[in-house]
Amino acid sequence: MTEIQSRARALAAEGRSADEAAKIVTAELTAKHPGWPRANGIANAARAAIAEAR
Questions:
Q1: What is the mean pLDDT of residues 9-17?
Q2: CA proximity to 50, closest of 3, 2, 10, 1
Q3: Helix 18-32 × helix 2-13 angle, to 10°
Q4: Per-residue pLDDT tens digits for 18-48
Q5: Where are the domains of the chain?
């Protein structure tokens, strides 16, 4: 979870929208961890991390 949060916040700091960051984080982490169960929750976790940081 911390990996999702830190990457999403870094993308937001670069000026990416929450939706764009969520797509990028999902793509990166599903490629890095193909066996993760419930990978469909990555996008929502990324959006939540960005919302909390604001």
A1: 96
A2: 10
A3: 140
A4: 999 999 999 999 999 999 888 889 999 999 9
A5: 2-53
b (16+ CB within 10 A) / e for 29-49 = beeeeeeeeeeeebbebbbbb
Closest CA to 46 of 37, 30, 9: 9
pTM greater than 0.90 (yes/no): no
Please report where in the chains the tokens 């929450």 appear, as a residue.
18
**pLDDT at site 41:** 93
23 close to 43: Cβ distance less than 8 angstroms: yes
Give yes or no for a contact between 29 and 39, defined as CB atoms under 8 angstroms apart. yes
